[in-house]
Amino acid sequence: MIEIRAVIDDIDYESLTEFLLPIIADKLEEKGGFRALIAKSTDSLSGFAKQMIASMPQEKKDELLLQLLHEKKSLVLDKVNDKAKDYEIGVRILDIDARNI
């Protein structure tokens, strides 16, 4: 096995928000109630999320991203492995680790 660690900088948080929004909306909808109503209004959710991210200092954005990566590790691995399969890249990523340096 090969362990790969990547140092990432200059993250486009707006694009990342667009990528993650459908995943977040699905999770909110599963929980039902008021959260489901918010999730169904993806335009409002998107606008709110973009505005919130834009107003955060860089340190907080990075902290939030690290928290999401740790909490949703299995989901991230599934998505990355799905993309690798789609592009016929002959790898299977077993684990990722992220930390602020």
Structural class: mainly alpha
**Quantity of strands, as a count:** 0
Low-confidence stretches: none
Strand content: under 5%
Q: Count up the helices.
A: 5
* H and E string: HHHHH
N-end to C-end Cα span: 25 Å
Shape: globular
The Rg value, from CA coordinates, equals 15 Å
Task: Provide a quick synopsis of the model.
With 101 residues, this protein is mainly alpha-helical.
What report would you give on this structure?
With 101 residues, this protein is mainly α. It has five helices and no strands. Helix 1 (13-31) packs across helix 2 (33-40) and helix 1 packs across helix 3. The longest helix is centred in the first third of the chain and has 19 residues, at 13-31.
